[in-house]
Design brief:
Length: 291
């Protein structure tokens, strides 16, 4: 099926990046959020990020102008009814995602494909509560979306082959590379990445090293471009905790228990870069470790 109009639900860190790459690839984008300020911030950020791409000669000024014109925002979820593909990128909480799909479904075309950018929630379970489990799958972008090459495509147990192929075609048109994952907790990338981040937080919690020494150790000792705590702040500590909880509950193995220090940071509202404080404090000119 031909995909031309794409609806994106959630205009946070991921939603704005997803809107950006779809608009550059020539898709018409309808972006929604429950918060008008999130929509305004997303448009301003997309404009800034596209300008940066023009400055670096990655795209030309005409492409930027055309992309900005293709993005329309709305605070009304049901305006997305006439789109061909929905990518849900709202807060990582199952009840929120489920309510979004329930509200959307009566307004959708019968052949609209529904997808979720969830980092960890069961695609099969989300799909089973919709009217179209065969046209439902995981469409998992990496952060920051305009830069990261991978999209992890996740088949729910009922996802049909034509839905999967259509989404594979969309990823190719975005100029990105897809991998296929089966629908088990946290899929491939986060199944491997999050326990490493959680272990880095345990290493801090147990006093084995400071924020600085843990991040420097992994950057210089394992050749990682970012330290694990820096990366956790970048992803969002609430999202990291949600993923660890999904791994812990879904695989019933104590090796996945979230570090109490991660829980503590989330309880404090120190969610990383998006709230200006996490394992680092971002309110000054340079990030300062908070422990
Ligand atoms: N942050 C990452 O690195 C990353 C990477 C890959 C996937 N994801 C996934 O992407 C999704 C979004 O994560 P994020 O980091 O962008 O979170 P975020 O907190 O930056 O943004 C979430 C947005 O969803 C909006 N929202 C909440 N309820 C809504 C509703 N009912 N309708 C519409 N919008 C609603 C919020 O207002 C907010 O703007 C999550 O499922 C997360 O697991 C995140």
């Amino acid at each position: 099926m031909a995909i031309e109009r794409v609806g994106i639900v959630g205009a946070g860190q991921m939603g704005n990046g997803i809107a950006h790459v779809f608009a550059v690839a020539g898709y018409d984008v309808l972006l929604t959020d429950v918060r008008q300020d999130a929509l305004d911030r997303a448009v301003a950020l997309i404009d800034r990020n596209l300008t940066r791409q023009v400055t670096r000669d990655l795209i030309d000024a005409g492409t930027k102008a055309a992309a900005m014109q293709r993005i329309v925002t709305t605070a009304t979820l049901t305006d997305l009814g006439q789109t061909d593909l929905i990518i849900e990128a709202a807060t990582e909480r199952e009840t929120i995602k489920q309510a979004i799909f329930e509200d959307l479904i009566p307004h959708l075309k019968p052949d609209t494909i529904l997808t979720s950018n969830t980092s960890s929630i069961s695609i099969t379970r989300l799909a089973s509560r919709t009217d179209r489990p065969e046209r439902f799958m995981g469409f998992h972008f990496m952060n920051p979306v305009p830069i990261m090459q991978l999209v992890e495509l996740i088949r729910g147990i009922a996802t049909d082959e034509s839905t999967f192929k259509t989404c594979e075609g969309v990823v190719a048109r975005l100029g990105k590379t897809s991998t296929a994952s089966e629908d088990f907790p946290a899929f491939i990338v986060n199944r491997i990445l999050m326990p490493m981040i959680n272990e880095a937080i345990y290493t801090l919690y147990e006093g084995v090293g400071s924020v600085q020494s843990i991040d420097t150790s992994l950057k210089l000792g394992a050749n990682h471009p970012m330290g694990p705590l820096e990366l956790a702040d970048f992803i969002g500590l609430d999202t990291c905790l949600a993923i660890m909880n999904v791994l812990h509950d879904g695989l019933a193995d104590t090796k996945y228990r979230p570090c109490p220090l991660l829980t503590k940071y989330v309880e404090a509202g120190w969610l990383g870069r998006k709230s200006q404080r996490g394992f680092y404090d971002y309110r000054g000119d340079v990030p300062v470790p908070t422990r």
